[in-house]
C-alpha cells in the first residue's frame, strides 16, 4: 500500500534459477537499449551480480524524481521482451540486497561489475569473483537524463456506468 513515495533511481532485476547466463545476456541487452535508445553512457550503468541467480541494474536519475507508477512504466518498457526481467522491484516496499552483502544460500557476495565485464565474462568467472566482496571497484554514480515521455502517465479512463434495469 505504499504510494506516496518517489525515487531518483531506476532498478531492474534479472533472475533465472535454471540458467543465470540467460539473466546475464538480458542485462547486456538492457544496456544496449539504454545506450542506443537514450544515449546513456555505459559508465553510468550500475551492474551487480546478486550473489545468486541473477543481476541488478541501477540508473541514477539525479534531480528527476519518479513515482512507483512511473518507475514501473519506464523499467517495464525498457525491459520489454527480456525473459528474465523480474518486475517485482517495482513494488516500493520491496527490498533489494545491498552491495557487498553475502547471499545466505550461496555464500556469494553481491558485487559490482562494469557492463563490459558482464558482457565478456561467463557465469563461472563471475561467481568465482563473487566469492569475495570486491570492495576495490567503484562504479560511477553519474546521473542520466531520460526523456520525460518515458515517465508520462496516461490518464485513467473512467469505466462506463452500467445502467441497472428497473
Q: Tell me the radius of gyration.
A: 18 Å
Helical region count?
A: 4
Shape: globular
Give start-end ranges of low-pLDDT stretches.
none
Estimated structural class: alpha+beta
Write a short abstract of this structure:
The protein is α+β, with helices and mostly antiparallel strands.
Describe the fold and architecture.
The chain has four helices and four strands. It is of the alpha+beta class. Strands 1-3-2-4 form a four-stranded antiparallel β-sheet. A hairpin with a 4-residue loop joins β2 (46-49) and β3.
Give a quick set of tags describing it.
single chain, 166 residues, alpha+beta, four-stranded antiparallel β-sheet, 4 helices
Secondary structure: elements and pairs:
Layout: E1 9-15, H1 20-38, E2 46-49, E3 54-60, H2 68-78, E4 111-113, H3 115-120, H4 123-129
Antiparallel strand pairs: 1-3, 2-3, 2-4
Amino acid at each position: 500500500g505504499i504510494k506516496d513515495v518517489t525515487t531518483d533511481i531506476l532498478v531492474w532485476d534479472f533472475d533465472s534459477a535454471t540458467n543465470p547466463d540467460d539473466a546475464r545476456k538480458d542485462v547486456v541487452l538492457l544496456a544496449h537499449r539504454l545506450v542506443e535508445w537514450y544515449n546513456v553512457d555505459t559508465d553510468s550503468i550500475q551492474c551487480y551480480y546478486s550473489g545468486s541467480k541473477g543481476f541488478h541494474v541501477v540508473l541514477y536519475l539525479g534531480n528527476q524524481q519518479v513515482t512507483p507508477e512511473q518507475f514501473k512504466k519506464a523499467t517495464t518498457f525498457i525491459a520489454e521482451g527480456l525473459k528474465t526481467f523480474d518486475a517485482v522491484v517495482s513494488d516500493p516496499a520491496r527490498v533489494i540486497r545491498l552491495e557487498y552483502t553475502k547471499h545466505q544460500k550461496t555464500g556469494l557476495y553481491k558485487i559490482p561489475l562494469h557492463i563490459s565485464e558482464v558482457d565478456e565474462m561467463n557465469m563461472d568467472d563471475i561467481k568465482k569473483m563473487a566469492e569475495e566482496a570486491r570492495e576495490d571497484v567503484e562504479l560511477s554514480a553519474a546521473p542520466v537524463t531520460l526523456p520525460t515521455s518515458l515517465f508520462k502517465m496516461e490518464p485513467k479512463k473512467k469505466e462506463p456506468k452500467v445502467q441497472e434495469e428497473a
